[in-house]
Amino acid sequence: MNRILFERDELQADGTVVLTDARATHIRNVLGADVGRILHVGMVNGLAGDGRVLDVGPDAVWLAVTLDVETPPPWIDLILAVPRPKVLKRLWAQLAALGVGRIMLINAARVEREYFATHWIEESHYRPLLIEGLMQAGNTHLPAISIERRFRPYVEDRLDAAFPGTLRLVAHPETAEASRDSTLQPGGASAASPVLLAVGPEGGWTPFELELLEQRGFRRFALGTRTLRTDTACIALLAVLGAQQGQ
After folding, report:
1. CATH code of 184's domain
2. Shortest CA distance to 67 belongs to which of 41, 89, 91?
3. Same domain? 10 vs 32
4. 141 in helix, strand or coil?
5. Do 11 and 98 fall into the same domain?
6. Are residues 22 and 99 in the same domain?
7. Is 65 in the same domain as 29?
8. Containing domain of residue 35, as a range?
């Protein structure tokens, strides 16, 4: 944990926070923090700052916090064809750490129906993993998650209103040359425009899905000709795009 995060309702009126879970264990056993130690802290979806250790007990740690720092805002949104449950579990923390702002889990022709039955698309299961990723990255902006079970109605009817003025990219391994194109400004979007990336299932987008996305201004983008697993592809794509966008 590079920044200890807490929820808004954990902050007391006197500016203190009492931690009794894995965060307290980390402060005691990993950081070895004594009374008076200053730690990096932050509020989920709020400001960051410092936390001074007031007391360390066997079951709790008391902090006096000062929040006065804005952390970097999300720089990219992700449309993600629902992957296998164990892959999705691995991805949650990484997507938060890499600065994704909104994640739309979407159905696609090559997405197995049972993937939507996994508990890893339930907030009670994915939220702790998102916060884990934020604490690793030192950020406070929790990604917003939505579930889209119908591909075509979402792309045709709701996508444009949700993402106006975005630089839109669809990951597809057939066009390796796109990954070497440094302009990446389709549809009049500038280099400073928010980025929207669509990553398909491991079996790939169908021709119909690709065509529909391209009709909405998506441009094909790839890292090469290899077909990658979803978690590998997401992390690699976000890293490359983040470097190009100065993130």
Report:
1. 3.40.1280.10
2. 41
3. yes
4. coil
5. no
6. no
7. yes
8. 4-69
Helix (H) or strand (E) segment spanning residue 214: helix 207-215
pTM above 0.85, yes or no: yes
Give the strand order in the sheet containing 4-6.
Answer: 4-6, 38-43, 48-56, 61-69, 16-19
Neighbours of 153 (CB within 10 A): 11
pLDDT tens by residue, 104-143: 999 999 999 999 999 999 999 999 999 999 999 999 999 9
Q: With a cut of 70, list the residues of the chain below it in pLDDT.
A: 174-192
Cα–Cα distances in angstroms (integers) from residue 188 to residues 59, 64, 165, 169, 183, in the given order: 56, 48, 8, 13, 11
pLDDT at residue number 203: 87
Claim to verify: residue 206 and residue 88 sit in the same structural domain: yes
Which residue among 69, 88, 120 closes a domain?
Answer: 69
Does residue 40 contact residue 64 with C-beta atoms inside 8 Å? no
Q: Give dist(CA 34, CA 40) in Å, integer.
A: 14
Kindly state the tokens that stand for 96.
Answer: 């938060």
